[in-house]
Amino acid sequence: MSPRFAALTLAFLLAAPLAARAVQPDEMLTDPKLESRAREISVGIRCMVCQNENIDDSDAPLAKDLRLLVRDRLKKGDTDQQVRDYLVARYGDFVLLKPPFQRDTLLLWLTPALVLIGAAGYTISRMRTKKPAEAAALSDAEKQAVARLAAADDGAHAPVTKA
Asked: Which one of 17, 23, 91, 132 is at 20 to 30 Å from 1 when CA atoms are compared?
């Protein structure tokens, strides 16, 4: 298998899940503008079962209920913000994939920075303590022993000459 074919196959396999949507045709609104608004809202709403997917991408029954709820609220005339506010009032800020920066969510927002700072500090401290050991200077007795070995070795290996 050629590297180019393998790269294309890998790219296709990684992109294939992105093309799949959990929204079923029977859930879609007949009004294209309302459906577009529903999709925009759904992209920012977390599936409470999957927790790392938006409700448009999730096949969970709760995600379907939330998609239907969003569309129902839009049909009743709610604005996009009113729909989000309704969901937050019902499920809390956790329902939003990007929760607001406020006192209740401070730890959520600061945790990545704290982890990064901690990891950098740990790495720096390890680099400072892991200095390579310097070679110890030879004592006079060791220098004399090396000199004797070198002198004895000089006579043992005569230079090779070409005839």
From this structure: 17
Tell me the CATH architecture of domain 15-104: Orthogonal Bundle (1.10)
Q: How many CA atoms lie within 13 A of 90 on its CB side?
A: 12
The strand pairing partners of 96, in sequence order, are 45
Ramachandran angles phi, psi of 72, nearest 5°: -65, -45
Distance of CA 59 to the CA centre of its chain: 23
Three-state SS sequence of the chain:
CCHHHHHHHHHHHHHHHHHCCCCCHHHCCCCHHHHHHHHHHHHCEECCCCCCCECCCCCCHHHHHHHHHHHHHHHCCCCHHHHHHHHHHHHCHHHECCCCCCHHHHHHHHHHHHHHHHHHHHHHHHHHHCCCCCCCCCCHHHHHHHHHHHHHHHHHCCCCCCC
Q: Which of 102, 51, 106, 74 is nearest to 84 (CA)?
A: 74
Q: What's the pTM value of the predicted model, to 2 decimals?
A: 0.54
